[in-house]
Amino acid sequence: MRKDVERRMWIYRQYSQVYGPLTDEGRYGIGEQVRLIDRTQGNVMWKYVHRRLGLIYVLEDETPFPVEVKAEVIVGEV
Q1: pLDDT at residue 1, rounded to an integer
Q2: For residue 60, which of 1, 5, 8, 52 sits 20 to 30 Å off, Cα-Cα?
Q3: Widest distance between CA atoms in the chain
Q4: E strands along the chain, which residues?
Q5: pLDDT of residue 3
C-alpha cells in the first residue's frame, strides 16, 4: 500500500509541474472508472485545468503508465 501511495505522489508531483494544481471541475471525480471514445477504460487519478487545453484527466489503466486525456474523449462511467 505504501509503495502505491508513494508512486501516486511521485506522479502527482510530475504532472502538477506541467499542468498546475488539482481541480474539482469536471463531471468525473478522482477514483471513478470511466470509458473513453475508443472503448478503453481507466480510473481517474488526477484532474487539472490547463490554460490552453482545458480540463485534463490523468487516468490509471492496466498499463504501468498514466494516460492523459482531454475531458471530451470521456464518454461515460463504467
Answers
A1: 60
A2: 52
A3: 35
A4: 33-36, 41-50, 54-60, 67-70, 74-77
A5: 72
Burial of 34 by CB count in 10 Å (0-12 exposed, 13-18 middle, 19+ buried)?
A: buried
Q: Would you state the pLDDT for residue 20?
A: 76
End-to-end CA gap in the chain: 24
73 or 22: whose pLDDT is higher? Answer: 73
CA distance readout (Å), 31 to 51, 53, 77: 24, 22, 11
Place of cell 480510473: 43
Distances (CA, A) of 72 to 3, 6, 35, 61: 32, 30, 11, 18
At residue 30's C-alpha, the angle toward residues 29 and 35, to 5°, is 70
